[in-house]
Amino acid sequence: MAFRTLTYDVFHLGLYMITALAWTSLCVMVLLTARRRRSTAVPASGLCVAGVGALVCVGILLADVLRLIDHRVVLFSLLVFGVFAPVLTVGGLYRRLNQRRGTVG
Prior knowledge:
Blueprint: H1 2-34, H2 41-65, H3 71-104
Helix pairs in contact: 1-2, 1-3, 2-3
Transmembrane segments: 13-34, 41-62, 74-94
Keywords: Membrane, Transmembrane, Transmembrane helix
Organism: Pseudomonas rubra
């Protein structure tokens, strides 16, 4: 029984770490694509994305710890809002950044 609890905790920790990594990569891509705009908008856009990512992670973590929603719903929301949404957005920003570089050069 203790081994299952440890595996569950390590799996959960890994999922939260992947979520943080996905949102961090989204912040980096926002900063890379926003650097051609006004210089004052670049730090603000990065901070906004970081704030949204922190709110998503903390909200799901509180719902998980306080057991407000079912365990399967927590895992699904972590995967969808914590991993898939930022990764798809990073892919779109990466494509946009490469298209912009292709038209300039």
